[in-house]
Every structure is written in C-alpha cells, then in structure tokens.
Amino acid sequence: MKTLLNLENWNRKEHFSFFKQMEEPFFGITTNIDCTKAYKKAKQLETSFFVYYLHKTIIAANTIEPFRYRINGDEIHIFDSIDASATIMREDKTFGFSLIQYSPDFDVFSKNTLEEIERIKKTPGLFTREFSSDNLIHFSAVPWVNFTSLSHARSYTFPDSCPKISFGKMTIANDGKRTMPMSVHVHHGLMDGYHVGQFVDYFQELMNE
Q1: pTM
Q2: 82, 66 in Cβ contact below 8 A?
Q3: Would you give the end-to-end CA distance of the chain in angstroms?
Q4: How far apart are CA 36 and CA 172, in angstroms?
Q5: Percentages helix, strand, coil for the chain, rounded to the nearest 5?
Q6: What is the torsional sign of CA 201, 29, 33, 137?
C-alpha cells in the first residue's frame, strides 16, 4: 500500500523540484559500521551474518520515512513498507537480482531470504522474476573489498528513486573490534544528508543490540 505525498504542504517541495531536474540526482556517503556485537549475535543465533545485517538494514530503512518515498512522474508516493532487492551470487560467479519480502520478525525474514537465495542459485540470468513495484532497497555486498568509496552503474534516462545500500569486507582490529564499510546512495530530491545520518545512526543502534 502507498499514499500520495502532499507536495504543496511539503517543506522540501523546492528541494524536490530542484534536484529532480538533474541528470544525476543521487548523492552518496560511505561510513564504517561497528559490527562486533551483531556478528557475535548472529553466531549465537546460528544464522547467516549476511541475513542478520540485511534484516537490520531493511528495518532501519522502513523506520526512516524518506527511505520509503518513491517518485512517480511529478508525484511522490509513500509506501507503507519496502522490501529488499539484493544481488545474490551463484557458484559460477554470476549474480541475479532477488526480491525479499520484508518482515519485522527475523525468523520470517530469514526464511524468506534463504528461500530466495536458493531460488536464484538454481535459476540462470540477471532478472529471474518480475519486479512489479519500486518499493525496494537496492542492496549489494562486496565482501572482498574494504572500500572507502563506491559508485553505481546508472542509466540517467531511467526513472529511478530507490536507495542503494552496499556493504564491504569485514575487518578485525587487534582488539577484536569488527567493522565493515557501508555505502548509502539516495535521491537528493527525496532526502538530504540529515536523513541519511538518521538512517546510519539507527542502523548502528540495531547492530549494537
């Protein structure tokens, strides 16, 4: 379900109009996330760390409202909830785009994620299903690289307003602290650095639980 944002009463109406006309309206940040407690918790639960932090990511994205905004022509729709479209690698090192339904319940989300991973591993091609809605976070993991910045392949003619969140290689310090880089790219017509900061802070809180 989605509702229409009242642009006339929105305090960012001028910002939306300004950034919407740009060829590249996305901006991005890269930061380091402390995943020491989250990694330990995932091991205690005997679950995939990838699935664990993906769930925390999508919880945070659903909580910070602008991450649920999507542009449709000259309108902005607010989705009640958003799902995850993560890149899933196969044994032959190709990947496919997944569609993982969001649930605040980790057990339900984990089941959805693992089933989708197995489906993609057995299905060739990049697009292995239809994507009927843009209530998505475009998600990717680059666990081989401890990156300090990241860019995305984009077609400027394709109307896209989905946030793009990526994670890099987890590293371990001498004191045992685990960190990994996170990149967040968002449409500047829908949000600003303040909102990205809210997302990062809340995500870190969830990882520290």
Answers
A1: 0.95
A2: no
A3: 30
A4: 9
A5: 35, 25, 40
A6: positive
**Which one has a higher pLDDT value, 159 or 204?**
204
13 residue type, one letter: K
What span, in angstroms and rounded, lies between the C-alpha atoms of 96 and 99?
10
CA distance 195 to 173: 30
Q: Quick one: how many helices (H) and strands (E) in the chain?
A: 5, 10
Structure tokens at 26: 């996305």
By CB atoms closer than 10 A (0-12, 13-18, 19+), residue 75 is: exposed
Q: Among 36-45, 52-61, 64-73, 151-160, whose mean pLDDT is lowest? A: 151-160
Q: Strands 26-34, 75-79: parallel, antiparallel or unpaired by DSSP?
A: unpaired
Structure tokens that stand for 61 in this block: 């994205």
CB 127 within 8 A of CB 72: no
Give the 3-state secondary structure of residue 8: helix
Whether 141 and 181 have beta carbons less than 8 Å apart is answered as no
Lateral strand order in the sheet of 69-72: 2-4, 75-79, 69-72
The two structure tokens encoding residue 198: 């809210």
Torsion (CA) 42, 48, 52, 55 in degrees, nearest 10 = -160
Q: Which H or E run contains 29? A: strand 26-34
Q: What tokens appear for 121 in the block? A: 């591993």
Q: Contact at 8 Å (CB) between 60 and 202?
A: yes
* 69 φ/ψ angles, rounded to the nearest 5 degrees: -85, 140
